Amino acid sequence: MTEQRPASNPVTMREVAAAVGVSVATVSLVVNNKKDARIGADTRRRVMEAIRELGYRPNALAKNLVQGSSRFIGLVADAIATTPFAGQIISGAQDEAWKHGFVLLVANTEGNESAEREAISMMLEHKVLGILYSTWFHRAADIPAALRETNFVLVNCFSPDGDSRAVVPDEEQGGRTATGMLVDRGHRRIAFVNTTTAAPARDGRLKGYRAALEAAGIPFDPDLVLDAIPNQEGGYGCVPDILRQGATAVFCHNDRVAMGLYDGLRQHGLAIPDDIAVVGFDNQEVIAAHLRPPLSTVALPHYELGVAGVRLLLGLDRVEEHALVRIECPPVERDSAGVRR
């Protein structure tokens, strides 16, 4: 039985060469899989056997420098790893990278520009195949100059100049889907509680709401569109106006707004969905699945965004050079929208 070597003394290429009785150069050619090198099949076999038996590990960084790339994909994010549901982007990217033989290197910068520059620099030094650059909410983003030194894809954000490939949620489709869930249950006085925050989600979900009404032949009533701070207090504060407008159903900008709406409606002695139906957005499960009744909502496709970003980076999905790829936001039907008619 071979004595185990201390971790501080890894096997060297010279030791492999000595075990086989060949030169270090020959071992290097085999390790780097140089097909055109004049090395016999038997010698290659003996070198590979020695590598396995001795536990030799090639210097990955040196190999990357020779080949010009590595089996690493970088992901640089502003706060994605610490948000309750957006970390699914990392899971999606990691699973898809692993499926194709790559490892994901993740840097969570918390919006610190200096940390961001250092992270990108480190990844470039390690010859990553490319970098996914992601934000925790869908928005326009300033592209760090260093990103343009490598292959990159924007995830959950986009360049305001439209000069970069990006994958983002389809906010308009999500708004149509959320409103359609209520239309399908026979509602015609459908209120929309939108956010006060200027963002693609504000504009896109409103467009989707209006498109769903138009498709159903329901006239758009601007009095049914209310702006609120996108949290529980914002939803709670909208209840008097919603009741004053005679709405029978409400589409909320996000699940936190819906949670506040639940509280306000109950305070007025109203039941969900019997008196007023409610649909949220985000599918933030810590909220949506545990409200009573459980909240019908539309999911942000974070996992799918991560998958799509890796596929674009690897060239598995062909798109135009500066394409903006929109990923579908699927419905999650629970109980708060009521029964389809």
From TrEMBL:
<dbReference type="Pfam" id="PF13377">
    <property type="entry name" value="Peripla_BP_3"/>
</dbReference>
<dbReference type="InterPro" id="IPR046335">
    <property type="entry name" value="LacI/GalR-like_sensor"/>
</dbReference>
<dbReference type="InterPro" id="IPR000843">
    <property type="entry name" value="HTH_LacI"/>
</dbReference>
<dbReference type="Pfam" id="PF00356">
    <property type="entry name" value="LacI"/>
</dbReference>
<dbReference type="InterPro" id="IPR028082">
    <property type="entry name" value="Peripla_BP_I"/>
</dbReference>
<feature type="domain" description="HTH lacI-type">
    <location>
        <begin position="11"/>
        <end position="67"/>
    </location>
</feature>
<keyword id="KW-0804">Transcription</keyword>
<dbReference type="GO" id="GO:0003700">
    <property type="term" value="F:DNA-binding transcription factor activity"/>
</dbReference>
<keyword id="KW-0238">DNA-binding</keyword>
<keyword id="KW-0678">Repressor</keyword>
<keyword id="KW-0805">Transcription regulation</keyword>
<dbReference type="GO" id="GO:0000976">
    <property type="term" value="F:transcription cis-regulatory region binding"/>
</dbReference>
<dbReference type="InterPro" id="IPR010982">
    <property type="entry name" value="Lambda_DNA-bd_dom_sf"/>
</dbReference>
<protein>
    <submittedName>
        <fullName>LacI family transcriptional regulator</fullName>
    </submittedName>
</protein>
